[in-house]
Amino acid sequence: MSTTRAGVRIDTDLTTSNTHVPRPWALRKAVLHDELGGDPHFSRFAAAGGALCVISRTSADGADPTLPVNELATAFVRRATGQAPPRSLRGPVVILGAGHIGGLWRTGDLTDFHRALLYSLAREQGGPSGG
Protein backbone atom coordinates (compact mmCIF):
# COMPACT_ATOMS: atom_id res chain seq x y z
CA MET A 1 0.00 0.00 0.00
CA SER A 2 1.43 3.35 -1.04
CA THR A 3 2.10 5.95 1.62
CA THR A 4 1.37 8.83 -0.78
CA ARG A 5 -1.34 9.85 -3.22
CA ALA A 6 -0.26 11.06 -6.66
CA GLY A 7 -1.95 14.11 -8.11
CA VAL A 8 -1.39 17.34 -10.00
CA ARG A 9 -0.89 20.90 -8.80
CA ILE A 10 -2.43 23.53 -11.08
CA ASP A 11 -1.14 27.10 -10.83
CA THR A 12 -2.93 30.24 -11.98
CA ASP A 13 -0.42 30.73 -14.83
CA LEU A 14 -1.67 27.45 -16.41
CA THR A 15 1.39 25.44 -15.34
CA THR A 16 0.88 21.97 -13.91
CA SER A 17 3.24 19.80 -11.89
CA ASN A 18 3.05 16.34 -10.42
CA THR A 19 2.70 16.21 -6.66
CA HIS A 20 2.63 13.50 -4.02
CA VAL A 21 0.53 13.96 -0.90
CA PRO A 22 1.19 11.77 2.18
CA ARG A 23 -1.62 9.61 3.54
CA PRO A 24 -1.14 10.34 7.28
CA TRP A 25 -3.33 13.36 8.11
CA ALA A 26 -0.73 15.45 9.98
CA LEU A 27 1.79 15.11 7.13
CA ARG A 28 -0.90 15.60 4.47
CA LYS A 29 -2.07 18.84 6.07
CA ALA A 30 1.52 20.16 6.37
CA VAL A 31 2.40 19.31 2.75
CA LEU A 32 -0.82 20.84 1.42
CA HIS A 33 -0.34 23.97 3.55
CA ASP A 34 3.09 24.39 1.91
CA GLU A 35 1.76 23.64 -1.61
CA LEU A 36 -1.17 26.05 -1.31
CA GLY A 37 0.30 28.72 0.96
CA GLY A 38 -2.50 28.35 3.51
CA ASP A 39 -5.04 26.00 5.05
CA PRO A 40 -6.38 23.36 2.64
CA HIS A 41 -10.08 22.99 1.81
CA PHE A 42 -11.24 19.66 0.36
CA SER A 43 -14.10 19.32 -2.15
CA ARG A 44 -15.13 16.11 -3.85
CA PHE A 45 -16.86 15.78 -7.19
CA ALA A 46 -18.27 12.73 -8.98
CA ALA A 47 -16.78 12.38 -12.45
CA ALA A 48 -16.64 9.95 -15.34
CA GLY A 49 -13.56 7.78 -14.89
CA GLY A 50 -13.47 8.24 -11.09
CA ALA A 51 -14.23 10.94 -8.54
CA LEU A 52 -12.02 13.97 -7.94
CA CYS A 53 -10.69 15.46 -4.70
CA VAL A 54 -10.08 19.18 -5.31
CA ILE A 55 -7.94 20.91 -2.70
CA SER A 56 -7.67 24.69 -2.60
CA ARG A 57 -6.59 27.34 -0.11
CA THR A 58 -9.21 28.85 2.16
CA SER A 59 -9.61 31.84 4.38
CA ALA A 60 -11.94 32.05 7.36
CA ASP A 61 -14.99 32.62 5.12
CA GLY A 62 -14.30 30.24 2.24
CA ALA A 63 -12.25 30.77 -0.93
CA ASP A 64 -9.52 33.35 -0.39
CA PRO A 65 -10.64 36.41 -2.42
CA THR A 66 -7.11 37.84 -2.41
CA LEU A 67 -5.92 35.06 -4.73
CA PRO A 68 -6.33 35.17 -8.52
CA VAL A 69 -8.93 32.90 -10.11
CA ASN A 70 -7.47 29.61 -11.29
CA GLU A 71 -9.14 29.41 -14.70
CA LEU A 72 -7.57 26.06 -15.65
CA ALA A 73 -8.56 24.29 -12.41
CA THR A 74 -12.10 25.68 -12.59
CA ALA A 75 -12.45 24.66 -16.27
CA PHE A 76 -11.00 21.20 -15.53
CA VAL A 77 -13.53 20.49 -12.77
CA ARG A 78 -16.33 21.71 -15.04
CA ARG A 79 -15.17 19.55 -17.98
CA ALA A 80 -14.40 16.42 -15.92
CA THR A 81 -17.59 16.47 -13.85
CA GLY A 82 -20.12 18.26 -16.04
CA GLN A 83 -20.84 20.62 -13.16
CA ALA A 84 -19.40 23.97 -12.17
CA PRO A 85 -17.78 24.35 -8.76
CA PRO A 86 -19.94 26.48 -6.42
CA ARG A 87 -17.43 29.31 -6.95
CA SER A 88 -14.34 29.79 -9.09
CA LEU A 89 -11.27 28.09 -7.68
CA ARG A 90 -8.54 30.53 -6.62
CA GLY A 91 -4.78 30.30 -6.26
CA PRO A 92 -2.87 27.04 -6.62
CA VAL A 93 -5.08 23.94 -6.60
CA VAL A 94 -4.14 20.29 -6.00
CA ILE A 95 -6.25 17.60 -7.68
CA LEU A 96 -6.25 13.99 -6.46
CA GLY A 97 -8.46 11.04 -7.22
CA ALA A 98 -11.19 10.04 -4.76
CA GLY A 99 -13.42 7.12 -4.00
CA HIS A 100 -16.36 6.34 -1.75
CA ILE A 101 -15.32 3.26 0.24
CA GLY A 102 -17.22 1.84 3.18
CA GLY A 103 -19.42 4.93 3.40
CA LEU A 104 -16.44 7.30 3.64
CA TRP A 105 -14.65 9.42 1.05
CA ARG A 106 -11.01 8.39 0.56
CA THR A 107 -8.36 10.16 -1.47
CA GLY A 108 -6.55 8.24 -4.17
CA ASP A 109 -4.25 8.72 -7.13
CA LEU A 110 -5.45 10.91 -9.97
CA THR A 111 -6.35 8.64 -12.89
CA ASP A 112 -4.48 8.67 -16.19
CA PHE A 113 -7.77 9.59 -17.88
CA HIS A 114 -8.08 12.75 -15.77
CA ARG A 115 -4.39 13.63 -16.25
CA ALA A 116 -4.79 13.41 -20.02
CA LEU A 117 -7.95 15.53 -19.88
CA LEU A 118 -6.19 18.16 -17.75
CA TYR A 119 -3.13 18.37 -20.02
CA SER A 120 -5.35 18.60 -23.11
CA LEU A 121 -7.35 21.42 -21.54
CA ALA A 122 -4.12 23.21 -20.51
CA ARG A 123 -2.92 23.11 -24.14
CA GLU A 124 -6.31 24.42 -25.34
CA GLN A 125 -5.94 27.36 -22.96
CA GLY A 126 -2.39 28.10 -24.13
CA GLY A 127 -0.48 26.58 -21.22
CA PRO A 128 2.56 24.31 -21.36
CA SER A 129 1.99 20.68 -22.35
CA GLY A 130 1.97 19.52 -18.71
CA GLY A 131 3.41 16.72 -16.70
What's the quick description here?
This protein is α+β, with helices and mostly antiparallel strands and 131 residues long.
Characterization of the model:
The chain is of the alpha+beta class. It has one domain. The protein has 3 helices and 7 strands; from the N terminus they run ββαβββαββα. The chain has helices spanning 25-36, 71-81, 112-124, and strands spanning 4-10, 16-22, 40-45, 51-59, 62-63, 93-101, 104-108. Strands 1, 2, 3, 4, 5, 6 and 7 form a 7-stranded antiparallel beta sheet that branches. Strand 4 (51-59) and strand 5 form a beta hairpin.
Q: How is the topology of this model organized?
A:
Blueprint: E1 4-10, E2 16-22, H1 25-36, E3 40-45, E4 51-59, E5 62-63, H2 71-81, E6 93-101, E7 104-108, H3 112-124
Antiparallel strand pairs: 1-2, 1-6, 3-4, 4-5, 4-6, 6-7
Helix pairs in contact: 2-3
